[in-house]
Amino acid sequence: MLQQGVYIVGGGSFAVKLSTMLEQLGIEHEFIDEQLHSPFRERAVYRANEIPHTDRLCLVAISFPEYAQAAKNRLMAAGVASGKILLFIYESAGNVFEQMCLENRALLSELLSQGVTDFLDLEKAFYARDYERLLEEKTAKPRVGFCYIGKGSGFRRHVLDLPHRLSATCDVKTFSDQPATPADKPEGYMLMSEGAMLNNSWPEFVINPHFFECAPAAVPKLTMMHMVYDFLVYRDLVARVMAQADTHYLFMPSVPSMKLHQKICFDYGLTNNIVFIPGGYPRFDTNLTQFEAASALVGEPDAILYAPTLSAMMKAEETRYTYSIFDAPAFIQRILDTFPDKKVIFRPHPDDLSILRQGIQGRRASAFRTLLQWCEEHPRCELDAVAGDYSRTFARAAVMISDTSAIAYSYALTTGRPVIFYSVNQDMVRQTFPDISYIKDREKFGFCVDKVDDLIASLQLCLTDNWDTPERKAFRQSVVFNRGHSFEYLQQHMPNMLSGQKVEGWWYLQDHL
Fold first, then answer.
1. Which of 54-58, 104-108, 464-468 shows the lowest mean pLDDT across its residues?
2. Which residues, 6+ apart, have CB-to-CB distance to 135 below 8 Å?
3. Is the alpha carbon torsion for 339, 353, 182, 216 positive or negative?
4. C-alpha torsion sign, points 60, 62, 65, 71
5. Which InterPro entries has this protein been placed in (predicted)?
6. Residue 39, SS3?
7. Do the Cβ atoms of 212 and 175 come closer than 8 Å?
8. Are 54 and 80 in contact (CB under 8 A)?
9. Which of 276, 282, 447, 513 is most open to solvent, judged by the fewest CB atoms within 10 Å of its CB?
10. Within the chain, how many helices (H) and strands (E) appear?
């Protein structure tokens, strides 16, 4: 079925990701979309009622269920059989589909030819033995599942080696839409899409380091936060995920993060058993140790680090004034000219690099490509694309330039060095986010600018020893919970979460309703 080619239904970023994956797998495809015009990614685009081959498989890459169903209805009205339409509601389904192609394309084609087009049914049929074994392996120990989504390792580093430590007293398994790494034990690892996780009856408790729905609602859940402060776009999504589990523990890294999520509870009228744990940020504690080791090797910092936030969210109206990427080619050029003794390190968000590789065009992409070209050609401009570990880059950087990226606070709290927050209109940023501590606290960590001349002046001040104050230092030491000891706190209280025992000092939503 796959050999004759397929249609991708949709024209958004999900469809582009799926197209890139099919290209890499050598599977021919064209697009079906009611808005796009041919060619798209050098391929034909059809309306549903125009497709020339109604017998081909249609892969619906639309994340909103109601829109996906509407697309399916149009295809069926055009003569496509229901058994030829495969809905990918979750992007993780695309990742699992890719692994199926790589592992056994013949089996996948056979299942598809049988009309198995509910993705959960397809996944269970393809990995039938794994699902059988999962049902057989329910033991007397508490069953704990770690759930990860996404090609960026799903923020796995934020749980450190907690799976290994829990395995002494619990039956621990990992569920992920990515293949196992060499460090993973095959018997404790299972490939699984987000949709399958929501139907997974094996775990009695789940842990994940990101906001996504990863287990049936009745399964208690611990979410490990992946940013230390409180700047948060897409609160609707976060509120929905916070409300999904009947009992939901969240391991809070800092005072601002705690206050933000308390506000979300009340603003959205959440009523489930939400528990906020003032635990700290284990990844931050690891960063401190790694930074000290890297600093001893690097010596004096020789660079200025530019680390913008994820620009894939640029369509969000509330973030239109926050971004720096459009001005970056101009100010990076000025920095290179003004500070001949300093290098510039460009560290884009990994997802932005991934989107660029998929061929996205536009003003944003053009700015990124200009900087990437300089990193290849300019002797004092370099790219840091190492996912996860940024300790050496932090050690080399005397100052960071960012906009609203979470990495800005990680850098400042880890290194004690300044951050210059560059956004195109700082007054509008303050008006748009009047209650967000990330925005209000920025000048406790450095300087806020929206002009290139002011950026250069702030850099000159930051590269001296006169930028810091005792008040700034005291604030940085107090804002994170359990600084340096958060992982020990997490280990100490895991039994309380597994048993549901109440702990003094934790914040329980049910006490405030």
1. 464-468
2. 201, 202
3. positive
4. negative
5. Glycerophosphate_synth, TagF_C
6. coil
7. no
8. yes
9. 513
10. 20, 19
What are the strands of the beta sheet with 419-422, ordered from one edge? 381-383, 343-346, 303-306, 397-402, 419-422, 446-449
Q: What is the identity of the amino acid at 404?
A: T
The CA distance from 439 to 457, in Å, is 21
Place of tokens 């230390």: 228
Please state, in angstroms and rounded to a whole number, the distance separating the CA atoms of residues 453 and 418.
Answer: 18
**Which amino acid is it at 183?**
A
Q: Give residue 205's identity as a one-letter amino acid code.
A: F
Which pair of tokens denotes residue 470?
Answer: 């005792």
251 is written with which tokens? 């391991």
Predicted confidence (pLDDT) per residue in 248-266, tens digit: 999 999 999 999 999 999 9
| Euclidean distance between CA atoms 393 and 258, whole angstroms | 29
Mean pLDDT along residues 157-166: 87
Contacts of residue 253, defined as CB under 8 A and 6 or more positions apart, other chains included, come to 225, 227, 228, 229, 279, 280, 281, 284, 480, 481, 486
Q: What is the mean pLDDT of the segment spanning 97-118?
A: 92
Angle, CA 279 vertex, CA 219 and CA 269 arms, to 5°: 55
Tokens of 153: 């390792």
Q: Are 325 and 364 in contact (CB under 8 A)?
A: yes
Amino acid identity of residue 459, one-letter, is: L
Which residue is associated with the tokens 């405030």? 512
Mean pLDDT confidence for 417-433: 93
Higher pLDDT, 153 or 389: 389
Read off the pTM: 0.85
Order the strands of the 85-87 sheet from edge to edge. 45-46, 29-32, 6-9, 57-60, 85-87
CB 445 within 8 A of CB 408: yes
C-alpha torsion sign, points 209, 172, 169, 152: negative
441 and 260 Cβ atoms separated by less than 8 Å: no
Q: How far apart are CA 312 and CA 233, in angstroms?
A: 12
Question: Residue 406: what pLDDT?
Answer: 85
pLDDT band at 318 (very low <50, low <70, confident <90, very high): low
SS3 state at 201: coil
pLDDT digits (tens, 9 = 90+) for 187-213: 899 999 999 999 999 999 999 988 889
Report the percentage of the chain scoring pLDDT > 70: 96
Give the pLDDT confidence score for residue 224 in this predicted structure. 92
| HEC string for 323-388 | CCCCCHHHHHHHHHHHCCCCEEEECCCHHHHHHHHCCCCCHHHHHHHHHHHHHHHCCCEEECCCCC
What are the tokens at 231? 């700047």
DSSP state of 270: -
